[in-house]
Design the sequence.
């Protein structure tokens, strides 16, 4: 009798021998590719995972998003639900972009049509945000798609985008500030003048200064916390002069506010203390969170990036 030859899958550049390996290194694009070329089915068969093989074989959807959702459930993949949703949305945008590029090649589209479709693609992403003003995963992925593939439209339209979102989704405004590219359009940037003095660019950019004032007003709203709901995380408590590890290293967070006399830093970063003056209206992004406070009533507010 011929011996069954076992083989490994490679996910996220790691060899996958077991279901546990797959759970720990689950990469959406890799697993979807293995599903589509049936290598996932063969791997499950030679590894003896009959129950999982049956479940995978019973997937009826042909849509990548639905397939991935099914696979995540079948293999009991755990993780940050919002991040998983964000990755799924990004996969959807990637698939749509591939289909559009394929269409251009087949139809020999002229430049005018491509530009029109380009603008339409940007508008579609903005509309998705407006239609889902409280879906943080969708908003983050849509903004990243805009930054990655519609940069020149964003350069021209970042002002109108801001005011459109301000009127419809405060959460989306906060997500703009989380994005490394977008935040530069709206937050003050220090610049060195010819005489060596340091100034903020908003002093000579009235449009940006106005938008920043709107952001200042947003975070001072009495209903700011209720608008953001679970997306705004807060902590209060005395740490007795020690650093309290609130969030682990490896996840990024944007600090919204901190009280005077308190300190925050990236997780485990000795000497990286940030005071009230370092944080106030700067929307600093840190890697994990350590927090220090001597006052019970003081509150730290932050959001996951």
Sequence:
């Amino acid at each position: 009798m011929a011996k069954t030859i076992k083989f490994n899958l490679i996910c996220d550049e790691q060899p996958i021998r077991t279901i546990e390996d797959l759970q720990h290194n689950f990469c959406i694009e890799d697993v979807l590719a293995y599903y589509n070329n049936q290598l996932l089915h063969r791997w499950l068969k030679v590894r003896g995972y009959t129950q999982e093989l049956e479940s995978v074989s019973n997937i009826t959807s042909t849509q990548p998003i639905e397939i991935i959702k099914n696979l995540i459930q079948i293999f009991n993949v755990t993780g940050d639900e919002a991040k998983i949703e964000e990755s799924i949305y990004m996969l959807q945008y990637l698939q749509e972009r591939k289909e559009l590029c394929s269409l251009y090649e087949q139809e020999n589209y002229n430049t005018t049509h491509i530009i029109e479709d380009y603008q339409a693609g940007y508008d579609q992403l903005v509309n998705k945000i407006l239609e889902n003003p409280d879906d943080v995963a969708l908003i983050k992925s849509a903004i990243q798609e805009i930054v990655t593939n519609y940069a020149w439209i964003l350069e021209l339209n970042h002002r109108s985008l801001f005011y459109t979102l301000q009127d419809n989704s405060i959460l989306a405004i906060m997500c703009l500030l989380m994005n490394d590219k977008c935040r530069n359009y709206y937050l003050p940037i220090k610049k060195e003048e010819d005489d060596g003095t340091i100034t903020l660019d908003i002093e000579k950019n009235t449009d940006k200064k106005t938008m920043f004032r709107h952001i200042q007003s947003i975070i001072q709203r009495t209903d700011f916390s209720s608008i953001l709901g679970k997306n705004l995380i807060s902590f209060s408590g005395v740490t007795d002069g020690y650093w309290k590890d609130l969030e682990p290293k490896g996840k990024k967070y944007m600090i919204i506010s901190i009280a005077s006399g308190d300190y925050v830093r990236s997780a485990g970063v000795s000497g990286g203390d940030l005071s009230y003056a370092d944080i106030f209206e700067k929307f600093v992004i840190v890697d994990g969170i350590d927090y220090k406070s001597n006052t019970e009533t003081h509150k730290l507010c932050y959001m996951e990036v």
About this structure: The mean pLDDT is 88. DSSP finds 14 helices and nine strands in the chain. Strands lie at 9-11, 14-16, 190-192, 198-200, 233-236, 244-257, 263-265, 285-292, 299-304.
